[in-house]
Amino acid sequence: MYYENKVVWITGASSGIGEALAYALNEKGARLILSARRTDELERVKSNCKGDPDNIAVLPLDLTDTDLLAGNAKQAESLFGSVDILFNNGGISQRALALEAELDSVRRLMEINFFGTIALTKAIVPGMIERGHGHVVVTSSVMGKFGTKYRSAYAASKHALHGWFDCLRQEVIDQGVDVTLVCPGYVKTDITKNAITADGSKFDKMGSAHKEAMTPEQFADKLLPKVSAGKEEIYIAGREIWAVYLKRVFPSLLNKILRRIKVT
Q1: CA-CA distance, 92 to 198, in Å (whole number)?
Q2: 46 phi and psi, to 5 degrees?
Q3: 33-46 pLDDT per residue, tens
Q4: Active-site annotation holds for 154
Q5: At 97, is the secondary structure helix, strand, or coil?
Q6: How far is CA 261 from the centre of its chain?
Q7: Which of 154, 186, 235, 245 is catalytic?
Q8: Domain 7-260: which CATH class?
Q9: Directed axis angle between helix 16-27 and helix 216-228, to 10°?
Q10: pLDDT band for position 51 (50/70/90)?
Q11: So where are the chain's domains?
């Protein structure tokens, strides 16, 4: 019942986890605002949803255009009168050695994963505070808790999200706004194929670990009950979840393990 008739805005809704969330939330009776860059893909997702199409709106946006996101937020609020839940799900990954990654590619990744996410949140949370309720959900990663080779900027962006949203939670919890950070492990999406390399070009390969990972639909089914339960931080992963706990208790051991394993 948590999602029924709630207005839920999903970024990164054109594929992967965002698309799966759209279908799952649609079945739970939520009114949806679907956002990503590709309008045609958003329309495809909308057409695959069941029920009344008037309860699903398409709102294209680009998280790198941070100056436009406040206007996008006003558009979103005007579609159904408010936004009750914001799923900050848009983002990209990286496959590049730290010393080889060009600063322009690092800035682009940070612009999408961090600055775009916080700009959209800053634009939408005041309305939640005014109404006395709201929920911000952020797709981070287990990489927000530790780092491996080839993902320096990606891990940095996810660590930054945890710092910023942990602070935001303390500032808005007494005003009725919940903040949930979600840490997926490997999910079978195109995130590796779409990852950027050292010069900013597309990696265009599927990571070996992602081939055998859980599907986005399985991930969404596990995630939504935890979000509705008000969890502040959620981990959904396979064996890679143990790295999160090793980092807390035996960080030196984790570093030794990560140095030896194959990372793709």
Answers
A1: 14
A2: -60, -45
A3: 999 999 999 999 99
A4: yes
A5: coil
A6: 26
A7: 154
A8: alpha beta
A9: 60
A10: confident
A11: 7-260
